[in-house]
User: What shape does this take?
Amino acid sequence: MATLQDVADKAGVSVSTVSRALRETGQVKSDTSQRIRSAARQLHFSLSRSASSLASGKTMRVVYLTYNDLNTWYTSECMEGLYTGLYGSGYDLIPYVTRTKDELDAFIEELPDNGNLDGLVLTSFPFTEHQLTILRGLHVPTVAIDSNSPDVFDAAVMLDNKSAMYSAVQLLQRLGHKSIAYVGDLLSDRFFISSRTRCEYFLDAAKQLGYGDDNIDVFTRDDITRDNIGTQSVITQYVSSILSSPKKPTAICAATDYLAMGLIHGFYEVGVSVPDDFSVIGFDDMDCADLMDLTTLHQDPLATSKLAAEKLLKLMKGEKVEERYTSLKASLVVRHSTKRVS
Assistant: This one.
């Protein structure tokens, strides 16, 4: 097996210069570094990850903290985007899932003593003041995706949920719907993801556009008394509540595409037609939204997380991020789950 000395001899430099070049310390001139890397490739030499980490003080690990299963659409898109953004940098991406508030508390409490990461990406968590204090004092760069507290982090990439919900409500108004409703996520609202803000922005938009309290309805997971029930039961109860509402909404904004498609199926099961009886708007524009002909708000978590990874890489290199906080727009995609009322 080739050694550092072999690479040094072939490149005509010292062993310490080879080590610095292969660890990307930035202390070796570009042309010299390229010559060393070429020699290493020819000799099939690679620097030991553990040895490199010990020498540089870096773990070469980035932790991605999320609240959802890794195989869900949003989280898997974020994972792909982070992987793409970090590709070629030498960093490993480590996902970490917290499904409850207690798990999140434990993760945050342990962060100051966790020397096993060089950077942290977090998504969609509104944190407590105590947690924010811990995050402010971290020794590693942190980047948030769609957080309610972006200014706490070294950088953030945000989704403009406010303008998105305004465009959805505006569409329903233009279609002539006099009474409209918002349906919250399938998770309990006692959980903590930032899509909860969509309900607030829906209400704000409806009032700005002239809807009165008698013409606005909201249905959330907390309205369902039993917590430990399956998705189908939640959908069934949502449909029942919507159909029995005294406000008689004719159009619905759903928190996600997944929920919107569940509602459409739930309406179908009881003989209610979309869009003839109800117009339904989703949020996300998942791959299957087009197949379902679902009007929705398009976001691109892959591009969002790739941008987050690029910001984090700069921070981990000690470089300045030109735009610390980036806000991205969601675009309205009109299909056939919405219809003008006569």
Summary: The mean pLDDT is 89. The two ends are 79 Å apart (CA to CA). The chain has 13 helices and twelve strands. The first strand starts at residue 61 and ends at 66.
